[in-house]
Amino acid sequence: MSKNRTNTDYCRHVLRVAWTAHRGAMADTGARAEEFIQRLIPAETFEMADSHPDIILFMSGGSERRAIELADPARPVLLLSIPGNNAYAAATEVMAWMVNHKRIAMLSDAGDAAESGLIDRWRMAAGAWETLRGSRAGLIGTVSEWLVASDVTAEILRERFGVELIGIPWETLPDYSKEDPDLALLSRFGEKKAEGLEDAAKILTLLLRALHERGLAAIAVECFSLVQERKVTACLALAQLNSEGTVATCEGDIASMAGMMAGQALTGSVPWMANTTLLTEKTLILSHCTAPFDMVSQVKLPSHYETGWSLAVDGEITARDVTVYRFSENLDKVFIAEGRVVSRPHMEDACRTQVEIELPKEALRVLRERPLGNHLLLSPGKHSELLRLACWYKGIEPVT
Fold this sequence. Notes:
Layout: E1 15-20, H1 29-38, E2 46-48, E3 55-58, H2 64-70, E4 77-81, H3 87-100, E5 105-109, H4 110-116, H5 118-132, E6 136-140, H6 154-161, E7 164-168, H7 183-188, H8 197-214, E8 218-221, H9 224-230, H10 235-243, E9 247-250, H11 254-267, E10 272-279, E11 283-288, E12 296-300, E13 314-317, E14 321-327, E15 333-343, E16 353-358, H12 361-369, E17 376-380, H13 384-393, E18 397-398
Parallel strand pairs: 1-2, 1-3, 3-4, 4-5, 6-7, 6-8, 8-9, 15-18
Antiparallel strand pairs: 10-11, 10-17, 11-16, 12-13, 14-15, 14-17, 15-16
């Protein structure tokens, strides 16, 4: 297959907008509220509602009690006010009530929220978490024994992200050698057929079977046992899946899988999971053998770094600006930083695809003093503002 194997609906979420005003408000207040919102955001991005709102629009003072009645305890809400008419004062009172009752809410003047992009980011955050809710992810094998800070339990994954985790022992899967090789992966390299490419393409077919038969949106693959027992890697298969839009991690890293699912739901593209290889005074060096093909150029297929067997992805990250992030094993904390690619090193003693990123000093300090784990996720582009809002939306605390 050459098309995306997942359907990302992060930008299609329709915001539910409710309005509130004082008891003596004019009969046309609802119509004026809808007209006001239409001046701020496209009509197809919202609908007026009287329950479970994503946004409450304050049309006047004296509207506090009604706003509290409208707010859904299980749903974060954006409190917006029109200019004047004591609307912002009322919204402020309700915001204080939300804080006092440990409810997730955000306060802004409606015009400012539209101009700054806050309303659109709010829609994307709400839509991303809605997209993940009820999805299924698979763990093939077990979490690799060295990932002592990355073993997210099925219960936590379900409670925090709404994702059901399915365990898939390797012995329950067919022998990969009897599968047909995936043509999309084979055709990616044209007439150049590296030794071992056909086996890598058979691994991809096996993983696709597991995904489709179980209705999975993502997989984490414990791949070292496969390399050790059969001398074939899953590196190319995972790189192909990620480049086609299906989240796939190696080493059975569930924390990274969860973060990649969230990142894809927010930005529309799958991040790269990579090792924290080196921290310098100003930079972070990441490396791994499974970089998505759509994220790199000048791809070579050397052997897998740790074992020297089979094939791995060695490419040059094409992005200039990047966002680096990572969730904790309890999915209650997050590290987020934006950086700039300054070099693409070729160290012999590191995983194959490598990149050096200049990060703020504070971010480097956090990575030294309070890391959430070895593996970090890299997304091309500047996404920190959106990621922070989405994490705040879920009550996920940034590490500082």
